[in-house]
Structure of NADH-cytochrome b5 reductase:
Amino acid sequence: MFSRSAARAAQPLKKHVRRYATEAGGAGGNSTLLFVAGAAGLAGAGAWYFSRSPAAVAEVKKVVVAEPKKAFIGGEQGWLSLKVSEVETINHNTKRVRFELPESDQVSGLPVTSAILTKFKAEGAEKATLRPYTPTSDEDEQGFVDLVVKKYPDGPMSSHIHTLVPGQTLDIKGPLPKYEWSANKHEHVALVAGGSGITPMYQLLRGIFKNPDDKTKVTLIFGNVTEEDIILKNKFDELENTYPQRFRAFYVLDKPPANWAGNSGFITKDLLKTVLPEPKSDNIKVFVCGPPGLMNAISGNKVSPKDQGELTGALKELGYAPEQVFKF
């Protein structure tokens, strides 16, 4: 029924099948039957495919290549009232709040280096409070989006988010594009962050290292008050251990513990000169994000979301050009 020459021709396929088998199989007729069944199945599938109308075939292709539905599509899309599903206390002033997307199979749809906008109106207030945040959850995660929020005493939105409990909602919309990123856009990027300014840096890091085609080198300098304030450190440790030739992290504490082995005080020009890629290096970019004091000292504050403002501070003194620096 099945010639010896055909059986010999099927041998490579037999080895391929056994490589993925969950049970050990003999070298007898079972593999031959599997080959015959597979060939028959392929033939049947081919016959079905080519006998369909062009419209039916196009519909099959559409199903195969369909992208996940995006929750945030920008443009004329209105505010989404998203329900809180989880609240995790990270430290004395920081919480991770998880919001359910409208549909369980949706993804956020946010491009790398973009944010979302939050809104709430306090009782008796004339205007609503609006604040941008960068999610810390992966853009491809289905069904939810996470915000890691540090509470500031004079921050109306951060204080409000810290009061939220599961079941309550917050109005959110997006995306808010920040910097147009593509794989290998720069050979080496430096991330200078303070406090909650780490979230857009983490988003960029995640986008770089989850893309196998992106070979960008990254240096992170992260300043905080105490060791407890270093949020997402376990994520940075994991990246540093996984990509030791491409990622380095340096931490600076204003109030370090007695056994602290990192840098103390503030992020200084001398530290930046030591760890950043030199301004004369080819194709580099320095990203900066943090409270106003840090921005003033490192790069100068931006004027508005569309106006980066003048480059000042330590980066200018070290010889970096305005086009080499981006202020989140």
